[in-house]
Design a protein that fits this description.
46% of the residues lie in helices and 17% in strands. The protein is α/β, with parallel strands linked by helices. It starts with 5 loop residues before the first strand and ends in a 5-residue tail after the last helix. The structure holds 2'-deoxycytidine-5'-monophosphate. 2'-deoxycytidine-5'-monophosphate binds next to helix 2, helix 3 and helix 7.
């Protein structure tokens, strides 16, 4: 058996990483690993345990109580927290805040590192997150750092929320996004930054299809002797 192919996709919130990673995985027959969903699940566990955002370190001694698994039904990823499917429940604003808080804790990152590396050892993966190319899979054959301007990322997010029927103000979405960017890039543990050998792709002026095509081209070029 050949060595599994690992594709690392990093970038700021709202750049379209998960949409792209999901489509690429489907089209290439790879396993999609959404690492943000893992931080969200730990955030959900913390919230359910009654831990406040201001005392988030209290989650650390409780990590041994947590088991996270990814399972696939008809190619769709579901995430299980101690055996319960929490795929829907982790997509709320409050859990975004909890995920962001737990992701600043080095023991939480350490805990997820093995799970993430194990998946990449056993399967061809498209893994998206913030530190995949820099920390989790430094030897990934393909690394893409996907960005877009803050205004464009906020506009896309705003559109998505409107379509879900949520009452939001563009300016609030934009301010929240800037706050998350600041938090993700300035934290001490594995801050968001492109790996030295990552291909940077700015999707501001591209449609979804154009971005997808460009990513496929990058993956094709980097894996031409393997796939
Ligand atoms: O991509 P997302 O919005 O689902 O991520 C949720 C939070 O987890 C976000 O604040 C960034 C953090 N995260 C991280 O620190 N490292 C990753 N590999 C993935 C997500």
């Amino acid at each position: 058996m050949r060595t599994p192919i690992n594709v690392a996709i990093d970038g700021p919130s709202g750049a379209g990483k998960s949409t792209m990673a999901r489509l690429l995985a489907q089209q290439l027959g790879f396993v999609y690993v959404d690492t943000g969903a893992m931080y969200r699940s730990i955030g959900l566990y913390a919230k359910r345990a009654g831990i406040g955002l201001e005392e988030i370190e209290a989650i650390v001694p409780r990590l041994p109580e947590i088991t996270i698994q990814l399972r696939y039904t008809d190619g769709v990823q579901h995430i299980f927290l101690n055996g319960e499917d929490v795929s829907e429940e982790i997509r709320t604003e409050i859990i975004s805040r909890y995920a962001s808080a737990v992701s600043t804790l080095a023991p939480v990152r350490e805990y997820l590192l093995e799970l993430q590396r194990g998946l990449a050892r056993d399967h061809d993966v498209i893994m998206d997150g913030r530190d995949i190319g820099t920390v989790i899979l430094p030897h990934a054959q393909v690394k893409i750092f996907l960005t877009a301007s803050a205004e464009e990322r906020a506009r896309r997010r705003y559109q998505e929320l409107l379509e879900k029927g949520q009452a939001v103000e563009y300016d609030q979405v934009y301010q929240d996004l800037l706050a998350r960017d600041e938090k993700d890039t300035s934290r001490a543990a594995a801050p968001l930054k492109p790996a030295a050998d990552a291909v940077q792709l700015n999707s501001t002026a591209y449609t979804l299809e154009e971005t997808l095509e460009r990513m496929k081209t990058i993956i094709g070029e980097k894996t031409q002797n393997v796939l």
